[in-house]
Design brief:
Keywords: Aminotransferase, Pyridoxal phosphate, Transferase. This protein has helices spanning 11-22, 61-64, 73-82, 95-107, 120-135, 177-181, 191-200, 224-237, 256-261, 287-290, 310-325, 328-351, 376-379, 384-396, 417-436; strands at 40-44, 47-50, 55-58, 113-117, 139-143, 183-186, 205-210, 240-244, 267-270, 281-285, 356-360, 363-367, 399-400, 409-410. It is of the alpha/beta class and 437 residues long. It has two domains: 11-71 and 327-436, Aspartate Aminotransferase, domain 1 (Alpha-Beta Complex); 73-325, Aspartate Aminotransferase, domain 2. α14 crosses α15 (417-436). The model has no long low-confidence stretch (mean pLDDT 95). Bound molecules: 4'-deoxy-4'-aminopyridoxal-5'-phosphate. 4'-deoxy-4'-aminopyridoxal-5'-phosphate binds next to α5.
Length: 437
């Protein structure tokens, strides 16, 4: 496209000026403003269009919440049909909620029962509370760089470089010290770092929560022995193992990453792509744990006016039904992801750029650091400015990548081989240009 991306004579710029007066930082979620006043007015399949009519091939995909493509009729048609039927009653259960739970428990190997929430954060908050109730213990172990939502229990990150992630550790002010102190941080792909915490705090750790692939720092694919070792360790120590599959769930495989790695967590959380852009989250696990949410027999509060609401449940059912009926979604997105990763790897190798391509399935990340990248410590070598330049130049050419370094890009069910060809061509130009500068 030949538009001037830095122009201030645009509708996008004007909207951001208006937003800055009314919304803190001009956005409703802190990571939506990263250096450039994006303002989109629509989308179609793999593409989004900004308010000024510029079209972008979308790899941001709403942080992965778009799985099949934008405004997909696969999901939107049933949602449209549901409007004006079952709205909200606040009493009893709807057929949709039971249908959704059927699909989730059939798809997810470790799931016997589920609860529906409105977001991923609510699902992880419930998972942590349930684990504490079930064990009678207070401490939570998370991994460096793992993100599990905006709430207090998971707000510790121990970031070594302030410009990374959300730029702070803890992620927010306003959290009680003793709550922060109850969260311990281990190193991903380093079982000894977890073992050391269990030794330091015997019988005090309620749960270990992990993104099975920490996509919030790109794509650290776990070593098989690491995941297996964690399963064994948490089991032996009487702690709950939580897989936060908010990103990996339904995206990498219908049964989540647990199906890929063949290791079963106790609890699994979902959100994002599960309903292709409609808000919903979920927590699933064995009956023995989940029954604590039972309002008659249990002791953990399950509440939420909108939990399991019609449009989110309808969208999730439609998404899961589509994935079940079309397993080629996985072969296609995995093949496209692999083509992008292989293509980028050849380009940076040929150009002699110090970079490492990572990812899994349809997800890819480009780290500007020499490999191997196994854990968070390796990521500290990333050249964030190089990534920012790459992102900026790709976006100017109409390829919308995630703006933050150390995050990831997503192929949806609507991306094509031709889209990938054009992406690699553009990436070659951009990286050659960066090398020349
Ligand atoms: N867990 C993971 C792994 C996530 O990536 C996110 C969102 N980035 C969340 C939980 C929180 O989900 P939500 O934004 O829907 O509250």
């Amino acid at each position: 496209s030949d538009h001037d991306p830095r122009s201030t004579a645009t509708r996008g710029w004007a909207l951001h000026q208006a937003a800055a007066e009314l919304l803190p930082g001009g956005v409703n979620s802190a990571t939506r403003y990263v250096g450039h006043p994006y303002a989109f007015g629509g989308g179609d399949g793999a593409y989004v269009v900004d308010l000024d009519g510029n079209r972008y091939l979308d790899y941001h995909a709403a942080f992965g919440a778009i799985l099949l493509g934008h405004n997909s009729p696969i999901v939107d048609d049933p949602v449209r049909a549901a409007v004006g039927t079952v709205d909200l009653f606040g009493l009893g259960v709807t057929e949709l909620e039971v249908e959704l739970a059927k699909r989730v428990t059939e798809a997810i190997p470790s799931a016997e029962m589920m609860i529906a929430t409105m977001s991923g954060s609510e699902a992880t908050a419930q998972a942590v509370r349930l684990a504490r109730a079930a064990t009678g213990r207070s401490l939570l172990v998370k991994f460096q760089g793992g993100f599990h939502g905006w709430h207090d229990a998971v707000a510790r990150n121990v970031i070594s470089r302030p410009e990374l992630a959300y730029g702070r550790d803890p992620l927010s002010a306003g959290i009680l010290d003793h709550v922060l102190d109850a969260t311990l941080v281990a190193e991903f792909n380093d079982l000894d770092s977890v073992r050391a915490l269990f030794e330091q705090y015997p019988e005090r750790i309620a749960a270990v929560i992990m993104e099975p692939i920490p996509h919030n720092v790109g794509a650290l694919v776990p070593a098989q022995e690491f995941v297996e070792g964690l399963r064994e360790l948490t089991h032996d120590e009487g702690a709950v193992l939580i897989f936060d599959e908010v990103i990996t769930g339904f995206r990498h495989s219908l049964g989540g990453y647990q199906e890929v790695v063949g290791v079963m967590p106790d609890l699994t959380t979902f959100g994002k792509g599960m309903a292709n852009g409609y808000p919903i989250g979920g927590l699933a696990g064995p009956r023995s744990l989940m029954e604590r949410f039972d309002g008659q027999k249990g002791d953990v509060l399950l509440a939420g006016t909108f939990n399991g609401y019609t449009l989110g449940a309808t969208a999730a059912i439609a998404t899961i039904d589509h994935l079940r009926a079309h397993p080629e979604f996985y072969t296609r997105t995995h093949a496209l992801g692999a083509r992008i990763r292989d293509g980028l790897t050849s380009i940076v190798t040929e150009l002699g750029i110090e970079a490492t391509v990572a990812g899994f399935g349809g997800v890819f990340s480009l780290y500007f650091a020499a490999g191997p990248i196994r854990g968070y410590r390796d990521l500290m070598r990333n050249d964030d400015q190089a990534y920012a330049a790459f992102h900026r130049r790709m976006t100017d050419k109409g390829f919308l990548m995630i703006p933050m370094s150390l995050k990831r890009n997503h192929v949806s069910g609507s991306h094509t081989d031709e889209d990938v060809d054009r992406t690699l061509e553009a990436a070659r130009d951009v990286l050659a240009g960066m090398k020349a500068d």
